[in-house]
Amino acid sequence: MLEELQGDDILYIFDLDGTLTDTNGIWLEVDREFLARRSLPHTPEYQRVVERSIYPIAARFTKEYYNLPDSPEDIMAEWDSLAEHHYRELAPLKPGAAEFVCQCRDEGRPMAIFTACRPALCEAALRRFNLWELFGHIVYAEEIGLEKRNPQCFVRLSELLGVPSEQCILFDDSPDNCAAAGKAGMKAAGVYDAYYAARQDELKAVCGQYIRSFEDLLKK
């Protein structure tokens, strides 16, 4: 599929968590630590909801699910505090991610980031690896106000970027996100991440291309 989309007007859109950075596990630990501070259980039902939600929706759900006195804003601030150290100092890139992004830059390919990550955390991670300046656009899902599993989120993204959906290819580790992008008219390339290991057949089914690592796309 990538070989079929080599025109200069094709926009490569990268997810951050689990795609460029190996950070999905961080959010699982953040959730567990947040709940442990309150002696609350981390239930499978809770995890299924928050892992697919943008920050404000996840915070409102957390407040309601556990009947917390905290405001959604306070919940989000605590999550930020728990995650910040990881993004600024610890979170690694996925193998081959930096090299592939630099390869795309050298080819003159337009690139964007589309992430449900918080803006400050996203910037901290990308600046740490000197990748921040390589992306022409960085769009945050919470700005759009829709979850990334909603196809309308990608319709709106296309409008914001000023690029028709059919001229975009999304790199993402989430089967839900890739399926939504496809329904919006975008191409999708599935990127393996251990967090979704049990759903790889589903990811392959909704993507035109699937890679275990960005190293698979590096030119020799």
Structural class: alpha/beta
- Shape descriptor reads globular
Low-confidence stretches: none
Reading the helices and strands in chain order gives: EHHHHHEHEHHEHEHE
Element layout with pairings:
Elements: E1 11-14, H1 24-36, H2 44-50, H3 55-65, H4 72-90, H5 97-106, E2 111-115, H6 119-128, E3 137-140, H7 141-144, H8 151-161, E4 168-172, H9 175-183, E5 187-191, H10 200-206, E6 209-211
Parallel strand pairs: 1-2, 1-4, 2-3, 4-5, 5-6
Helix pairs in contact: 1-4, 3-4, 4-6, 8-9, 9-10
Give structural notes.
- Helix content is 46%, strand content 12%.
- With 220 residues, it is an alpha/beta fold.
- Strand 4, helix 9 and strand 5 form a beta-alpha-beta unit.
- Helix 4 runs parallel beside helix 6 and helix 9 runs parallel beside helix 10.
- The two termini are 19 Å apart.
Question: Which labels suit this protein?
Answer:
single chain; about 220 residues; alpha/beta; six-stranded parallel sheet; 10 helices; globular
Quick structural gist:
With 220 residues, the protein is an alpha/beta fold. Helix content is 46%, strand content 12%. It is built from 10 helices and 6 strands.
